[in-house]
Amino acid sequence: MNPDLEKLINLHRAESELKRLDSELAEVPRLRGELDERVAVDRGRLETARKDLETSQKSRRQHEAEVQDLETKRSKYKGQLMEVKTNKEYTAMLHEIETVEREIRSREDRILEEMEKAETLTQEVAREEEAFRSVEKVAKGEAAELDARKARLEKEHEQVAAERDRVAATIPEEELRLYQRVAKLRGSGMAEARDGMCQTCHVKLRPQMWVEIRQNETLFQCAACNRILYYEPPPPTVVIDP
Ligand SMILES: [Zn+2]
Asked: How far is the CA of 72 from the centre of ligand 1 (A)?
């Protein structure tokens, strides 16, 4: 094989590999974002449950304070009941006391309601806490995996980039410039020729060119996409003796 062609193939492979590594690296922050989002959804559910419980407890304390105020009022009215002079005043005071007692009962009913509600909500908070803890644990593991993947890809990228530079430095200027020009224009500088076709743009090659390409001795460019063509012979068939 033409040694320059071989170097160009190595350069092409290194650059393809770098592209693959770049796109895998770009996936990492995207996956990380998805992971954070998943944790945030579960954290949100836990926070909502905690808030609901807090609201219920607050409302219960408020009703309890109101009951206390109403009970003070009732004691006051009962004291005043002893001091009234007329029957009319007495009836009016009894009526006041009844009203206060009705209000106390209604508050007490609501306190009971809030207590039942808080019991359910406490269970819900516990459930959400457990769910969040396990989601957080899994997410932590996945985040560590992503960090490790990123480090691995970066290291690989560094090695392949060094290899690419090393190979590029050994290629004669003219061939290298041709390769780079096509790569810049087309996204890749080389294409495999197989079955009489350029495998990248799928244009059929002239028969004579196809014959010569298979010898891998001369640099040919695809007439359609300009990529430098190379031929990869099929792996030798292994004959197993019967
Ligand atoms: Zn082509």
From this structure: 95
Could you read off the pLDDT tens digit of each residue along the chain, which spans 242 residues? 899 999 999 999 999 999 999 999 999 999 999 999 999 999 999 999 999 999 999 999 999 999 999 999 999 999 998 898 999 999 999 999 999 999 999 999 999 999 999 999 999 999 999 999 999 999 999 999 999 999 999 999 999 999 999 999 999 999 999 999 999 999 999 999 999 999 999 999 999 999 999 999 999 999 999 999 999 988 887 777 76
What is the pTM (predicted TM-score) of this model? Answer: 0.73
Cα-to-centroid distance, 225 and ligand 1 (Å): 4
d(CA 7, ligand 1 centre) in Å: 20
Reply yes or no on domain 3-171 having CATH 2.40.50.140: no
For the chain, the distance separating the N- and C-terminal CA atoms, rounded to the nearest angstrom, is 34
- The domain locations on the chain are 3-171, 174-231
Q: Measured in angstroms, how far is the CA atom of residue 157 from the centroid of ligand 1?
A: 28
